[in-house]
Amino acid sequence: MYDGALEPKDYTLGIVDNDPLVLELLTHYFVASHAPLHVLWSLNNPEQAWRACNDERTRPQVVLTDIEMPGMSGRELFHRIRTRHPSIVVIGISAFPDSVEESGLVVLPKESTIEAIVHLTGMLLHDESLIRWHQQPIRINPLSPRELQTLDYYSQGKTTLFIAHKMNVGESSVKTFVKRACKKLNVHSRTEAIVACVRNNWI
């Protein structure tokens, strides 16, 4: 969401963190928030990230990197990128950002919001549209596992009979799952329910 007259420009983003959970969560939140930073890749190996930056096909405009990592640190990755690809914006993240002193490298706390990361990127790129961007609240999934599974099957083009067999229930139960899902999502058709789930990255 943007509070100005123009929509923000989209930039490509590479994420580097040796913690798989942090990497997965960051990637998910960037996608779910529809941020103007689109994840091009997310890697837990800084050497792989460096190779990706050197390849024109996978070179992002922004890199978000953990600082303390085994092997190549975030500091070293930053210096390599700044030397060879100065147009790439590099932002560090750390559990202890105040203890990181690195000339030219801005470091945010790992618990920073997506909005804070986008705003900082806007300041570093001198892009007012990013600075004005506001994160839309991520909608919590109100559906039960069976309701979600049913819609997921339908989104794949499966029939009601197939879904009933797979879920070991009657066809009437499958239709009930859809009806309940539509009510919870405040939509009027199965198709609308599927679209809502896809938009919110639930299926």
UniProtKB/TrEMBL annotation:
Positions bearing 4-aspartylphosphate: 66
SUPFAM superfamilies for the chain: C-terminal effector domain of the bipartite response regulators (SSF46894), CheY-like (SSF52172)
Domain HTH luxR-type span(s) in chain numbering: 136-201
Biological process annotations from GO: phosphorelay signal transduction system; regulation of DNA-templated transcription
Keyword flag Phosphoprotein: yes
Domain of life, per lineage: Bacteria
Response regulatory domain: residues covered: 12-125
GO molecular function: DNA binding
InterPro entries given in the database record: CheY-like_superfamily, Sig_transdc_resp-reg_C-effctor, Sig_transdc_resp-reg_receiver, Tscrpt_reg_LuxR_C, WalR-like, WH-like_DNA-bd_sf
Coiled coil: none
PROSITE patterns referenced in this protein's UniProt entry, alphabetically: HTH_LUXR_1 (PS00622), HTH_LUXR_2 (PS50043), RESPONSE_REGULATORY (PS50110)
Keyword list, A-Z: DNA-binding, Phosphoprotein
Full protein name: DNA-binding response regulator
Organism in which the protein naturally occurs: Bifidobacterium pseudolongum subsp. globosum
